[in-house]
Write the structure tokens for this entry.
Amino acid sequence: WSIPRSRCRHGIISRFFKGFVPVSEASPGPKSGREIYFRLLGYVRPYWRIFAIGIVGMIFTAASEPLFPALLKPLLDGRHDGSDPDSLWFFPLAIIGIFLLRGSITFVTNYSMAWVSNRVVMDMRIAMFDRLVRLPTSYYDNSSSGRLISKIAWDVSGVAAAATTVLTVVVRDSLTLVALVAWMIWLNWKLALISVFMAPLVAIAVRAVSKRLRGLARESQQTMGSITHVLEEAIECHKVVKIFGGQNYEAQRFEKANAAQRGNAMRMTVAAGLATPITQIMASLALAVVISITLWQVAKGETTLGSFVSFITAMLMLLAPMRHLSEVNGVIQRGIASAESVFELVDETPEDDAGTEEIGTVRGELVLEDVTFSYPEARGDALAGISLIVRPGEMVALVGSSGSGKTTLANLVPRFYHPQGGRILLDGLDIERIRLSSLRANIALVSQDVVLFNDTVAANIAYGGMGKADRATIEAAARAAHAHEFILAMPQGYDTLVGENGVKLSGGQRQRLAIARALLKNAQLLILDEATSALETESERHVQAALETLMKGRTTLVIAHRLSTIERADRIVVISQGRIAEEGTHASLLARDGIYARLHRLQHEREELE
């Protein structure tokens, strides 16, 4: 993911950002706060034109700051004897005009900077999510899903504030200070002070804007909830996303939810941005009335005013920019801390895809040659010297106690992990030489923990790379999975939303949808990870019938705790402490009276007791 340089060839703002490094060009590793901040500003670079509008608006805003105190000097020092009636209206109208001008410029400036800020947030979230769905399985093993969600959902907000808000304060308020100080130096210091507080009018304006902001804040919580939901599913269901090629689909879902959140944020910006100019305009109207009355008094000779009012006004106007500049450092530090969190994720190394070979439909011969694997910080090997040949179309069951290495072996086939020793061949080709997308296109997965998304039944069957399948093909897969009848009985049939992770379905129904998904993919290599271990007898009967349809003609690795489901397997491989202890058919292993026979007896006794 990169920021096009071609968009930044001209202009002062373009040259200003020329030295800032976008994410894709930054080298990983510890960085100073200055380097992190410059890297962050690289995200602003593609939008330098809109940013330039904001900068120009800040310049005009700062330049207009002395206009009001400057207007007060001739107003208060001049003679107003009533001989020129037009002057009685000029000054009040001029004051209103100044604040109308400032309000308009302020609104354009704030909107431009908010537009850039929200685009930066959107771009950074998309970049983080794009990296997230391509991270290796080991990263998910060692990361908290809640923290990952927090990084993308919340940390980016602090980053955007540092990228745009800080620049707004530094440029606008620094120029404001210069303009006001210059005017004060030029003034005669013998001036008078006039202070007008219009708290009631301001309170009314703030209350009206606050009511609008509260409503938008509720919508913001809903849109942020949608983003968090897509994130949580993509993190928790990452294996299904990978094996069925759903990265682009999930990225599109995330971008849609993110765009909705951005739209709501911009509506909040409009409401909040109107607060300042509306308040200023109301205050200017009230002040115009006060000055108009004062002019009438001057015309009658009741009072005189001097330059002191202009000076004090300018001095009071210095307070706000000085306070803003004093708060900039805190915003920068919070932004840098958030940026470190964001870039930590963006800089993570994606899945190793060093393979260059593209393969079509495979025959399904799977060969493991002296495969060894161990998890980080584990004391021993999860797999030690596994050698196994699975012929095309053969059903091989992996049996063993918990922690023996069955699931680890199955996870090596789609390259969720990489063996530390030995190699795995698919149709005679080392799977490390095959491109990940090409390898996983030939593999389907059905596990005990079925993964369903909060979408329609049809979308869950035709997931990821199969998203363009027509309804007839989807229904054919559902029939083969013994799912068509219960789907038709649902309120909207195939268009029924299944709820979060299929909460509206029973365990057996969820399993059959997962089998229909695997049938629709029509992959030659099938991995069944304890697909019936948590089902009651009736559901198991339906699921087992669907699995028999699914396994026909496919090379199948079955991980099973319930040994009754694998008695008809072509071969049963017993794994103990990461090694193959026994191998054979159900009958031959019982006759051998070894580990498998013992496991079979224990399970049979437990079932009888139940």
In short: The beta strands are 366-373, 383-390, 395-399, 421-426, 429-430, 443-447, 525-529, 555-559, 571-576, 579-584. The chain has 21 helices and ten strands. The radius of gyration is 35 Å. The longest helix spans residues 247-299.
